[in-house]
TrEMBL record:
Keyword set includes Glycosyltransferase: yes
Classification via PANTHER family: ADENINE PHOSPHORIBOSYLTRANSFERASE
Function: Catalyzes a salvage reaction resulting in the formation of AMP, that is energically less costly than de novo synthesis.
Protein's organism: freshwater metagenome
Pfam family, one: Pribosyltran
Subcellular location: Cytoplasm
Name of protein: adenine phosphoribosyltransferase
GO BP annotations listed: adenine salvage; AMP salvage; purine ribonucleoside salvage
Residue ranges constituting the Phosphoribosyltransferase domain according to the UniProt record: 42-153
Similarity annotation: Belongs to the purine/pyrimidine phosphoribosyltransferase family.
Length: 183
């Protein structure tokens, strides 16, 4: 990638033992709060996914919403939300999955996407890959094609990459858990 992604790490706050003891939580909200790093991240993603010709960006609640919407705007794509249960008002598809700390579930409106859509899924962190794998399955349930997953950070000591790439989905991760830019 053309720009220096190491600047992203300056905006990361590592919070020990959150939300449960033993978890080193990577708070990436500073990347969003700084217009320089927000632009850097969105341009880097856009450069990576533009050749994949996406039509829709799908954001995972909650940090995938602002990040994904910014990427959708940059690419001229539409934006769709994957929400926590009980938030979407119409008929949904639903998937439960395991987190690095506990379990959760996601939902998507059944009519949010069509078989003509080529989708990039966006989130802040790829950890065990449970969230992203559930997101891939949900999007596929609508009939749309999932091309890739875009995240700011990949926790490379966890098996998230294989949990996602086994679904035949490319991964665009900008930095690892020590701030090193990823290829
Ligand atoms: P996973 O399903 O294990 O890949 O977890 C990914 C989701 O959980 C993302 O939406 C992240 O926001 C969040 N997450 C999991 N582990 C961490 C972590 N160590 N630091 C920050 N966010 C995390």
């Amino acid at each position: 990638m053309a720009e220096d992604l190491s600047a992203l790490w300056n905006e990361v706050v590592v919070v020990p033992d959150f939300p449960t003891p033993g978890i080193s939580f990577k708070d990436l909200l500073g990347i969003l709060a700084n217009p320089v790093t927000l632009g850097l991240a969105v341009r880097a993603w856009a450069e990576a996914v533009r050749p994949e010709k996406p039509t829709m960006i799908v954001g995972i609640e909650a940090r995938g919403f602002p990040l994904g919407a910014a990427l959708a705007y940059e690419l001229g794509c539409g934006f769709v939300l994957l929400r926590k249960p009980g938030k979407l008002p119409r008929d949904v598809h639903r998937r439960e999955y395991e987190l690095e700390y506990g379990t959760s579930a996601l939902e998507i409106h059944q009519d949010a996407l069509t078989s003509a859509d080529r989708v990039v899924i966006v989130d802040d962190v790829l950890a065990t890959g449970g969230t992203a794998a559930a997101a891939v399955e949900l999007v596929r349930e609508t009939g749309a094609h999932v091309i890739s997953l875009a995240v700011l950070m990949e926790l490379t000591f966890l098996p998230g990459r294989s949990a996602v790439s086994c679904h035949d989905v490319r991964i665009h991760a900008l930095i690892d858990d020590e701030g090193r830019p990823l290829p």
